[in-house]
Design brief:
It is built from four helices and no strands. It is an all-alpha fold. The radius of gyration is 19 Å and the shape is elongated.
């Protein structure tokens, strides 16, 4: 998907940042999905459903607050990887000696 962005836009800092961001969101989405799937089986979520809570309320009050912290832990690492990828693209691969 990132290659499509680069192919259709004029090369620049914004376009390369968008391309890197498009490529990096999948790991965060995967962690969020696992957090939501594991939390939905917890007793307090089942109790809220049994008491007749609206599915939106269950999602906002019970699921998201327990699924977001692992994503927040990964965000700085994804930002770091994006900065390194951007610098590597700007300076060239030979600069890093790999």
């Amino acid at each position: 998907m990132g290659l499509v962005v680069v192919a259709f836009w004029v090369p620049g800092l914004t376009q390369s940042s968008v391309a890197i961001g498009i490529g990096g969101w999948s790991s965060l989405a995967r962690v969020l999905r696992v957090g939501l799937w594991s939390t939905r089986e917890e007793p307090f979520v089942q109790a809220a459903k049994a008491l007749g809570a609206n599915p939106t309320r269950v999602a906002l009050k019970h699921l998201l607050p327990h699924a977001i912290p692992p994503v927040l832990v990964l965000v700085p690492f994804r930002i770091e990887a994006a900065i390194i990828a951007e610098a590597r693209a700007a300076l060239g691969d030979d600069f890093w000696g790999f």
